[in-house]
Write a structure and sequence with these properties.
Elements: E1 5-9, H1 14-26, E2 32-37, E3 45-48, E4 51-57, E5 68-71, H2 74-87, E6 91-94, H3 110-113, E7 123-125, H4 129-145, E8 147-156, H5 163-177, H6 210-222, E9 229-236, E10 242-251, H7 257-266, E11 270-272, H8 284-287, E12 293-300, E13 307-315, H9 318-331
Parallel strand pairs: 1-2, 1-5, 2-4, 5-6, 6-7, 8-9, 11-12
Antiparallel strand pairs: 3-4, 8-10, 10-13, 12-13
Helix pairs in contact: 1-9, 4-6, 4-9
Bound molecules: adenosine-2'-5'-diphosphate.
Adenosine-2'-5'-diphosphate binds at residues 9-14, 16, 36-38, 40-41, 58, 73-74, 77, 162-164.
Length: 332
Amino acid sequence: MNAPRLAIVGATGAVGLEFLAVLAARGTPLRELRLYASPRSAGMRLPFRGEQLLVSPLTGDAFVGIDVALFSAGGATAREWAPRAVAAGAIVIDNSSAFRMAPDVPLIVPEVNAGALTAHRGLIANPNCSTILLALALWPLHQAAGLCRVIVSTYQAASGAGQQAMLQLREELAAALRGEPVPPPRALPQTLAFNVIPQVDVFQADGYTREEDKLLFELRKILSLPTLAVDATCVRVPVERCHSEAVAIELARPLAVEQARAILAAAPGLELIDEPANGRYPMPLPQAGRDAVAVGRLRQGRAFANGLTFWLAGDQLRKGAALNAVQILETM
Ligand code: A2P
């Protein structure tokens, strides 16, 4: 593909703004860029490469002449508009969960399964943010020693629930620090300031949340491990924009911790930060705005025979969303 004519749907959102930042920082060649959001944002302008680009509402001719459309406007908008964009001849890379598990929609983390891209029929799905970060770390370990089982607890930032959730956290913290009553939560199910919420997305009949299911089913699809056992507990923490995860895995074959360290240090997209004696380990605050996912605190696991336990932190808006989608675009 030559420099594409690109549309961004959801340009004013947390991930949409990050699309612009990532495209600008990487100098991705573009022939044209159109920005779309809800009618609420019509007429707004967003800066990009020295220009002020107009934000428009979606209309029937929005995708005429467009080669690729990056969507991050939620499942309902994707379900309504992504098929129309494909019908108009565009390739859609969608950040919502609407199409991820459809058999004919590739679910891509380029460092892991770029090969699956060729099977697309107009629609490509960007995985869930926690899934992308974890898949990056699991893939090289799986290649070295075979992955059997994953137990993961996530520590997910407000950014994962969009801009309104980030605003909610700031407003709650400001009110609490002024000694004023904290306003009722507007974007998350509970107050997040000085709290953690063991609920990300909605609960299902079996007691797991939909976010926890995304980790299970999306990891199986991305890693091509259809029976992989993944037990996830997803937790929202009062961090602005970087997710962390505590991970315990069982491997089919023994893998020494030193060997695992060397494998992760060499793996694309990862950065090993593992000097606990010097107080160096991955954390969300220093990882914000960085492309690499940081992995550390590697140790022999205690719960499984061939166990490995570790911790990771990665920018949810970058590798967890916008950067991964732009890498898919660049890979194509
Ligand atoms: P808007 O800012 O006009 O509401 P976030 O994930 O940060 O909440 O952002 C969601 C993004 O999706 C925003 O850019 C939002 O636009 C956009 N969006 C929401 N509903 C629609 C819609 N019906 N059509 C197009 N864009 C939408």
